[in-house]
């Protein structure tokens, strides 16, 4: 497997097509992350929100609404809600993982402290709930509030599953559906709901977001063992150092002999990591074809995402979303 540093053409095209809407989302985000009484809140929030992230999740909400002909304005509120939920989870994740780098920059918990990151994350969650009620649509409120609970549940499940060699691919998918895909699918689903889409169309949008989110996370896990630091925005091997059982390792453990299993038990379960262990882990992944097998899974989920789009109206946005699914997996080839 080699890493492809592609031009971000599908994202660029989608960003261009949604330019005016994204400007409105960004303006709303800046307005709602303000705090009259606690200046640290906008300081910490701005550090992450303005760090050059792709804004992929709110773009999915805008794209779904536009694809189905929604004129506005409430897709803006829903897209901003999605970004606030995402940013809050990143702040909390970096504390839990003791991360030191995010999007190629020092994490908020490193620049400030854990207390600030956790409390500002809480503030953003609260802001997201204020935003999600403003459209006055009970169904979008239900979808986004359920997604928030599912994300938290997925993160807690990962705490126990990520360092247990008994974790299999089914549990891994449950974690990924919680911590990553839930927000992708909620983002696309609420865009369809606010546009008045049919039940079949809303289901198609959910299926697209779910499959895209799973594919996205598998690729992210692959890049941790084979990407460039400047490309992935974190240090290569961080998942190994943080003792996370991601899909490539789960596949290698499933084929491990006694000696290999003892290595994984020492490094992942016991956390006893030594010089050269990351290189040895990479050699075991290669020996069992774990990276290529995980890549095939990512491709299958990307194909499922594209298939879901066929239930939606023909539209340039639909083609961009299809290309986006291809782009997600093209980062590893």
* Total number of strands: 2
Question: What's the number of helices?
Answer: 17
Extract low-pLDDT stretches. Answer: 2-7, 228-232
Q: Give the ordered list of helices and strands.
A: HHHHHEEHHHHHHHHHHHH
Major sheet: size, sense and barrel closure? 2 strands, antiparallel
Order of strands across the main sheet: 1-2
- From the spread of the alpha carbons, the general shape counts as globular
Strand content: under 5%
Which class best fits the helix and strand makeup? mainly alpha
What value does the Rg take, in angstroms?
20 Å
Question: Average pLDDT value?
Answer: 91
Distance between the termini: 6 Å
Bin the helical content.
Answer: over 70%
Report on this model:
With 333 residues, this protein is mainly alpha-helical. Strand 1 (101-102) and strand 2 form a beta hairpin. It is built from 17 helices and two strands. Mean pLDDT is 91; it is low at 2-7 and 228-232. 73% of the residues lie in helices and 1% in strands. Helix 5 (74-96) runs antiparallel to helix 7 (114-133) and helix 13 packs across helix 16. The protein has a two-stranded antiparallel ribbon with strand order 1-2.
């Amino acid at each position: 497997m080699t890493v492809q540093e592609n031009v971000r053409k599908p994202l660029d095209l989608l960003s261009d097509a949604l330019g005016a809407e994204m400007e409105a989302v960004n303006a709303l985000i800046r307005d709602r992350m303000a705090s009259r009484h606690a200046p640290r809140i906008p300081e910490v929030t701005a550090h992450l929100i303005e760090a050059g992230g792709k804004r992929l999740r709110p773009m999915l909400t805008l794209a779904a609404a536009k694809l189905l002909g929604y004129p506005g304005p409430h897709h803006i509120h829903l897209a901003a809600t999605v970004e606030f939920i995402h940013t809050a989870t990143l702040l909390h994740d970096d504390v839990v993982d003791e991360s030191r780098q995010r999007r190629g920059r020092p994490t908020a918990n490193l620049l400030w402290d854990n207390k600030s990151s956790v409390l500002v994350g809480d503030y953003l969650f609260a802001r997201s709930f204020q935003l999600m009620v403003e459209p006055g649509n009970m169904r979008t409120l239900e979808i986004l509030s359920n997604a928030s609970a599912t994300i938290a549940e997925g993160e807690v499940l990962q705490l126990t599953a990520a360092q247990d060699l008994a974790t299999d691919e089914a549990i891994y998918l449950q974690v990924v559906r919680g911590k990553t895909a839930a927000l992708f699918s909620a983002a696309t689903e609420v865009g369809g709901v606010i546009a008045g889409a049919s039940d079949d169309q809303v289901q198609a949008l959910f299926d697209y977001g779910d499959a895209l989110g799973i594919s996205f996370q598998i690729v992210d896990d692959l890049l941790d063992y084979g990407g460039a630091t400047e490309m992935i925005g974190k240090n290569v091997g961080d998942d190994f150092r943080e003792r996370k059982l991601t899909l490539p390792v789960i596949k290698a453990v499933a084929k491990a002999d006694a000696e290999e299993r003892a290595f994984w038990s020492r490094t992942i379960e016991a956390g006893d990591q030594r010089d050269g262990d990351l290189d040895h882990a990479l050699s075991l992944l290669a020996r069992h074809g774990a990276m290529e097998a995980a890549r095939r899974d990512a491709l299958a989920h990307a194909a499922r995402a594209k298939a879901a789009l066929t239930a939606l109206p023909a539209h340039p946005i639909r083609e961009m979303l299809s290309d986006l699914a291809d782009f997600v997996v093209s980062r590893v080839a």
